[in-house]
Write a structure and sequence with these properties.
The chain is mainly alpha-helical. It is built from 16 helices and eight strands. α9 links the parallel β5 and β6.
């Protein structure tokens, strides 16, 4: 036995005794325990600071309704701040005897302050503890993803401005189609990112609602003040209905995974373009040697591994939505242990996507644009549509002009006219870069 004297309170702990918030003194089969706990301890390190933040807000609320005294609140504030400092300095550890971060934090408070630490769980359940910590984690990390996406957007528009006059063959069905430009290419993906940011904003709004106070999903008989915790935790709103608050678990993950997947779709397609354009058959772009990798047997190789991994990682994140749907589909109202399985891959997806955005922005800034000779024989039909349009401007019907150019192509007499300018909004000679930039603002 370990005896801890604290404020005239004697606390007894069995050495290495497991700490569980639901412990009623009944031992659980070790195989069952290992299976149900899983790797929560490792994953919970990502949400530890949010549980501390929510616990502090909850303690302030408890003091406001006289469940704990001001002196007890001050003790809890000091204890929680110390734990937060450990988390910030990465010295916070969830040992094997603890089931999760929530039991670890309550144990530390109880060890230091005795009965005061035991009061912190009053009027809440582990269900809404996890839920509010995840809401806070999701909100902060969605905002982080949004900021990194904006940074990438700015980089792409800057590249579009720099290379706006450099023409690039455009393709449909991987066949030479019509003239494009590097400015058009870069700004296309930049404008797609705006759509992804719209979705991020909508998703942020859904998680920016305070679920704390829903307890196990049916509220509490204590006269808790949920407006206090909403204000303390800086939520924009409150999830009023306690069952709705619990039902948001699973729904949040489905919405977030769809949003992250949409952004990843944009990034993976762009990465695929880069891999394609780097190949010798295209040769449109290249990167410094130090950004590429080699082959173990082919000394000439300069592989676009970073962009292939971006593509693969983004495709993996796009699959997350299906996983979230299948785990939560048709679950009845109330809490179910299935929800535990959502946490790991959601958190890992956030951490991976932040890395993807950082490395993509870092690498794309070093892109080298090739000077493409559009007089090359393989591009000789790139301007056929412009030639048709010139005939139409001169008075010929479109169908007749199409047939005439078609005959010239078939007979090998076609001569390209590359002087045609595309002046309409969003075309290669009118990119509207400032309008796109203002659209995001």
């Amino acid at each position: 036995m370990v005896v801890i004297l604290n404020n005239d309170t004697v606390i007894l702990f069995k050495k290495n005794k497991e700490m569980k918030l639901w412990d009623k003194g009944i031992s659980i089969d070790k195989k069952i325990e290992n299976f149900t706990v899983g790797n929560d301890r490792e994953i919970d390190l990502h949400i530890a600071k949010y549980d501390v933040k929510a616990s502090l807000a909850h303690a302030k609320m408890l003091a406001s309704i006289n469940i704990i005294s001001i002196e007890e609140l001050e003790q809890l504030e000091v204890g929680l701040q110390e734990l937060n400092q450990q988390i910030e300095t990465k010295t916070f550890i969830i040992e094997p005897q603890f089931e999760d971060v929530h039991s670890k934090i309550e144990y530390e408070l109880t060890k230091k302050y005795g009965e005061v630490g035991k009061k912190i769980h009053t009027a809440r359940s582990r269900n809404d503890q996890v839920l509010v910590a995840l809401h806070l984690y999701y909100k902060e990390n969605l905002l982080s993803i949004k900021d990194k996406t904006k940074t990438f957007f700015d980089t792409l528009l800057d590249l579009a401005e720099t290379h706006k006059k450099q023409l690039l063959p455009g393709y449909t069905h991987l066949q030479v189609a019509m003239p494009s430009s590097f400015g058009l290419w870069f700004s296309a993906y930049a404008e797609l990112l705006i759509d992804d940011i719209y979705m991020l904003d909508a998703t942020i709004k859904t998680v920016d609602q305070n679920p704390l106070g829903s307890a196990a999903g049916y509220g509490s008989s204590f006269p808790i003040d949920r407006n206090i915790t909403t204000k303390e935790l800086e939520f924009a709103s409150l999830k009023y209905n306690v069952i709705a608050a619990q039902l948001s678990r699973g729904k949040n993950e489905r919405n977030i995974s769809a949003t992250l997947g949409g952004l990843c779709n944009t990034l993976s397609r762009f990465a695929m373009d880069i891999c394609l354009y780097m190949s010798q058959n295209f040769g449109f772009v290249s990167f410094p040697d130090e950004l590429t990798t080699g082959s173990s047997i082919m000394p000439h190789k300069k592989n676009p591994d970073v962009f292939e991994l971006i593509r693969g990682k983004c495709n993996k994140i796009q699959a997350l939505q299906t996983e979230m749907i299948l785990i939560t589909n048709n679950l009845p109202s109330g809490y179910h242990r299935d929800f535990q399985l959502l946490k790991e891959h959601m958190i890992l997806a956030f951490e991976e996507l932040k890395d993807i955005l950082d490395i993509f922005d870092y690498a794309i800034k070093q892109i080298k644009i090739a000077k493409i000779d559009l007089n090359d024989d393989k591009y000789k039909y790139l301007f056929t549509v412009d030639s048709i349009n010139n005939l139409v401007v001169d008075g010929m019907s479109f169908r007749e002009a199409y047939q005439q150019i078609g005959v010239e192509v078939k007979e090998g007499t076609y001569k390209a006219n590359t002087s045609k300018k595309h002046s309409h909004i969003g075309s290669i000679h009118n990119l509207c870069l400032e309008e796109i930039r203002n659209k995001l603002k």
